[in-house]
Amino acid sequence: MVKKAIKIKTNSRLHLGFISLETNNPYSYGGMGVCINKYPTVVRISPSTQFKSNLEKSHNNRILRFLKQYEYSTKVKIESISSPEKHIGLGSGSQLILAIEECIMKYYMTPSWPNIFGRKYRSGIGYNTYQYGGFILDSPKSIKKQSMPIFKFSFPKNWKIILLFDHTIKGLSGYQEKSFFLNNKDVKIREKLSDIILNNIVPSIIYNDFDIFSSALSKFQKITSSLYLTHQKSLYVSNDIEKVINKISNNFKIGAGQSSWGPTSYMIVDSKKDLNKILSILDKQISMYNNLAYNVVTAVNSGRRLF
After folding, report:
1. Side-chain-side CA neighbours of residue 270 (13 Å)
2. For 117, phi and psi rounded to 5 degrees?
3. What's the CA gap between 300 and 303, in Å, rounded?
4. Exposure of 296 by Cβ count < 10 A (0-12 exposed, 13-18 middle, 19+ buried)?
5. Which CATH architecture has domain 9-37+120-305?
6. Residues 6+ apart with CB under 8 A from 22
7. Residue extents of the structural domains in the chain
8. Is the dihedral of CA 95, 96, 102, 105 positive or negative?
9. Tens-place pLDDT, residues 20-49
10. What would the pLDDT profile of 10-20 be if each residue is shown by its tens digit?
């Protein structure tokens, strides 16, 4: 039987912050994220006369090792059709790996998820937005456990997300990122962050209460930024993005912060009230900086799609 091609499209995500870093508590990390409708990752696997791939060499080596270990045919073509820029806070690495692994699982009908890349996730936001979409609250976990969502909910459609990009900066990755997590422990703000999430952010999403949500999210971001003082001196790794967001937040009700290590940052706004006014001001502000750009996105309340 000739195998059919399989294609997966997964959307990017914003990581809204950890609840904590590693602690003496049995469970660490956990956090929040939301799936967005632009900057997709698309991966396709199809029959071929030989192994073909446009992925980077290290990915190909791992895939071939897996196929040979389980005696699966290597006569396949694996393509990354589209993927957002790396290390800017959109979760491109996690989404690509998850899409590759699921394509292989579906194509070869493997009995379980093939952890080809041996990747262990401190955060379950990438995996859970991949699976479910929408707004995700990820449970703290032990190192040996898989992250599980403790709350997943449709993000209100009338709340728009303005993304801000700084093309001159990359977020932390690789050895630097690993070193950060090895050398930084929780700074006793876990209870404050948990309280904001449980008593403000989660209920405000359920009840579509933008005023409470925006204030709570901004407060959460300001508190959690203290976790990263060894890497960045303020809430934003990009000083120019910080100036723009401060200008807007002084005049409008927004929920603002930085996604993961940045530099991509966001302003969540109530589209029924202030979106057009904010965009008018933003056009003038962005024009002052050659390195900045913005885009308006919405949340996606469903997970990856198979074709």
Report:
1. 15
2. -95, 0
3. 8
4. middle
5. 2-Layer Sandwich (3.30)
6. 28, 29, 181, 184, 185, 186
7. 9-37+120-305
8. negative
9. 877 677 888 889 999 999 999 999 999 999
10. 999 999 998 88
